[in-house]
Design brief:
Blueprint (H helix, E strand, L loop, with lengths): L1 E6 L6 E7 L4 E6 L4 E6 L4 E6 L4 E6 L5 E5 L2 E5 L6 E6 L6 E8 L5 E7 L14 E6 L5 E8 L2 E6 L5 E6 L4 E7 L6 E9 L6 E7 L5 E6 L3 E6 L4 E7 L5 E7 L5 E6 L6 H6 L6 E5 L15
Antiparallel strand pairs: 1-24, 2-3, 3-4, 4-5, 6-7, 7-8, 8-9, 10-11, 11-12, 12-13, 14-15, 15-16, 16-17, 18-19, 19-20, 20-21, 22-23, 23-24
Amino acid sequence: MSVEVVQENVGKLLEGPHWDDVTNTLLYIDILGNTIYRYDPSSGKSQSVNIGKAVGSVVPTVSGKTLAASESRIGFVDWESGDVEAVASADLPPFTRFNDGKCDPAGRFWAGTMAFGETGSGAADYPRRGSLYCLGVDSKLTTHVQNVAISNGLAWTADHSTMYYIDSLSFGVDAFDYDIKTGNISNRRRVVTIPESTGFPDGMCIDSEDMLWVAVFRSGSVIRYNPRTGEKLRTVNLPVTIITSCCWGGAGLDELYVTTGKVTLTEEELKKQDKAGSLFRVTGLGVKGVKGQPYKDV
């Protein structure tokens, strides 16, 4: 196994990596930098656009556009001007914004929200004013889960029967029965529990064996879990502690891209972790991922 930095010291809070298999590039964001990046591994260079607002997630679309969730809206991004053409907006409570998002196997875009700003002193009293939304291919936005603290990772099984979901401050991964025809979810249950002492689960992806890879914030690691048993299978350690998300990429979908951040680190920690806020790539894992889905806008 090899861990390497592919984009160094990009920003304060990198998130939401998505491999675009049409262009063979990686989309990812810096939430606090209001910026979307497109990394081309063939050249080692990135294109970027600042949209002027905190961006929570980004995905490509079938038509070739870029769809982003930022603050209270979801829309198409103009890479030249940074303007966002709104497709849908959510009526969010104060101090709440869109966070992590991903498309399901039918091309719907799921994105959740979280509280920020006035958030209390810890996990126990963090306000649960977030929700999980789904933007249908008809551009209609529906609410599926409420009373969420920090809406994060999403993944679907290969047979399309199960959706996995992370509310970070519940310290685990939940599963829902998933209906690909309607997008309905039901029968929520806990499948993976992560001790609070380990860190809290953030972004997530799934591999070709239906095993989950969870980025654990403050742990310095991405952990592979078996959601059928809850068992920890493998730990991939990185040289920084703020691990935010991960996705599969590369021509063979056998490269794990990992986003990281600098938020919550002390000055002393930042001195020791000089690669915090970088984009990493892990190779040689001996397992392949699954293709990320674009939003079906045509």
